[in-house]
Amino acid sequence: MAANLLLHDDQTITLRGERFRIYLDAKQIQERVHEIGRQITRDYDGKRPILIGILNGAFMFLSDLMKSLRMDCEVDFMKLSSYGAEMITSGVVRELKKTDADLEGRHVLIVEDIVDTGLSMQYIPDKMREHAPASLRTVTLLHKFEATEVDVPLDYVGFRIRNRFVVGYGLDYGQVGRNLPDIYELDPNGADQPAQ
Ligand code: IMP
User: Fold this and answer.
1) Could you tell which of 113, 126, 143, 173 is best to mutate to test the pocket of ligand 1, judged by most ligand atoms within 8 Å of the CB?
2) Are the CB atoms for 112 and 130 separated by under 8 Å?
3) What is the pLDDT of residue 36?
4) How far apart are CA 144 and CA 111, in angstroms?
5) Which of 39-48, 160-169, 185-194 has the lowest mean pLDDT?
6) Which of 55, 36, 54, 19 is nearest to 184 (CA)?
7) Is the pTM of this model over 0.85?
8) With b meaning 16 or more CB within 10 Å and e meaning fewer, what string describes 103-134?
9) What is the four-CA torsion angle of 143, 89, 84, 157, rounded to 10 degrees?
10) Which stretches does DSSP call E strand in the chain?
């Protein structure tokens, strides 16, 4: 099987024939995740939040964020329909996996990788409210604020980014690229040059 991911140097990669360049490196990401972790630890003092990771993209952020919390906390997951193999959203949100935990009376923190149109993040709190949590907050690592079409309450945001497709650190392009520790953005200069 031909490789979908080609690493050229520290700055550029090719993913499924498209050229991407570095946007946020692992050190920047880790520093910001730890800042958010410290803030959440302060904000939830005396409480025991349950983090709900939105699969698949949020798993890496969730893992690092949870390690940075200095308190009792729990984790569960839900899964929504995603982009599929494309770079544009389908605009239709469906729940593919429900949470298993009993969320009634709990302090729920929704953990997303990225908010783009905002449709997913708008859908999730509505679903969650059916479970009658004691409180509900949201955290996203990335927010494509120029692309967001609906009003979504975001309590913690890692980075506000421009409206360009990104991969790495859990985010995929057609299921590849999630394993990259850095985040790359699509190179607007277009098509890939064959790797030397
Ligand atoms: P929204 O519902 O349009 O806000 O999109 C949210 C979901 O779309 C995210 O959880 C991601 O799975 C996916 N997504 C949005 N933008 C990107 C991107 O730039 N790269 C990879 N996935 C993305």
Assistant:
1) 113
2) no
3) 98
4) 16
5) 185-194
6) 19
7) yes
8) beebbbbbbbbbbbbbbbbbbbbeebeebebe
9) 10
10) 5-7, 12-15, 18-24, 50-55, 74-80, 95-97, 107-115, 135-144, 156-161, 166-167, 183-191
Tokens 């690229």, located at residue: 177
- Say if residue 179 is exposed, middle or buried (CB neighbours under 10 Å; 0-12, 13-18, 19+): exposed
> 116 alpha carbon to ligand 1 midpoint, in Å?
5
> Of all protein residues, whose CA lies closest to atom 11 belonging to ligand 1?
114
**Catalytic site residue 102?**
no
The residues, ordered by sequence, that sit 6+ positions from 62 with a Cβ below 8 Å of its Cβ are 51, 53, 75, 111
Sign of torsion, CA 32 152 126 46?
positive
Residue type at 29 in one-letter notation: I
Q: Find the catalytic residue in 9, 25, 113, 116.
A: 116
Query: Mind listing the pLDDT tens digit for each residue in 24-51?
Result: 999 999 999 999 999 999 999 999 999 9
As a whole number, the mean pLDDT across the chain is 90
- pLDDT by residue (tens digit) across 59-91? 999 999 999 999 999 999 999 886 566 666 666
Residues 6+ apart with CB under 8 A from 36: 65, 68, 139, 156, 158
Q: Is the peptide bond before 4 cis (omega within 30 degrees of 0)?
A: no
* The token pair that represents 120 in the structure block: 């997913």
